[in-house]
Predict the 3D structure of the following.
Amino acid sequence: MIEITNLIKTYAGKVHALNGIELEIGSGMFGLVGPNGAGKTTLMRIIAGLLRPTAGSVRVFGHDLASQRGRQEAKALLGYLPQELGFYPNLSGREFLDYMAILKGVTDSQERKQQIGELIELVRLTEVADRRLKTYSGGMKRRIGIAQALLGKPKLLIVDEPTVGLDPEERVRFRNLLSEMAGRCTVILSTHIVEDIGHSCSDLAVMDKGRVVFRGAPSDLITQARGHVWTITTQGEQPNGSLAVVSTLQMHDGVSYRVLGQPGALYPSAQPVEPSLEDGYIWLMRQSAAVMA
Ligand SMILES: Nc1ncnc2c1ncn2[C@@H]1O[C@H](COP(=O)(O)OP(=O)(O)OP(=O)(O)O)[C@@H](O)[C@H]1O
Ligand SMILES: [Mg+2]
């Protein structure tokens, strides 16, 4: 369980990255979504004990990160896959894991060998484990990154934008691997691919400009957009500016737009459609922008 209270982070006295976050995260897989600069990485680095907040408190399984002792105890329970993991291109996957395990304090070489062997199998890199990292594909690098985060058997796994740059198949495979992990530890996952969350998280928060603007299940986010999603077919002219276009499809008899908003009397032939998670997200971000404006 992670308890976050009134968390504030201001960089260099002027960049307000987190503006009073209140969040409780339970077990299973938790999704953190939001646009660029929302504060996702900042929040994850603070939970991982890598960055100190300006104010507020974070407790990780009861350990208060404000104290040196609390940070140490929390650190022993967590694994972190940063948004950009530095690699050692000339090390093999196995050598890299060995090195990271030593840094994590797995000093017994027998124990290290066993954990690394198990993890390589778990992330399905057995065949390439002795190849240099510079020969790995994006997906392989992500998987070795997860293996590295799982060294020392963490109870909390934090992964920042793990699916960026992966092809669709790798993305699905990686998502499944994370879901598998969520069976044995708490996983916090950040992404701006809303779809990744819908498929794997039961609980999520949407962040915008350093605030939590939504907290709930994916289905609750979808519900927010119900009654606001429509398709409109025109002869090519853009829909009225009050409507948000989420997709455009060229048809043989015109252009079909999927829009969010109220087409009303302007478009009497507008057809209501069932919202997707992405519609819910875009609708929420528009509401949030309107409130903040
Ligand atoms: N080291 C830093 N120094 C100054 N400002 C920073 C620093 N790191 C992040 N910021 C700023 O803090 C805000 C939040 O950044 P953060 O990286 O947490 O967002 P994010 O949600 O992870 O974005 P992205 O989706 O692009 O990864 C942004 O305005 C960013 O420019
Ligand atoms: Mg980030």
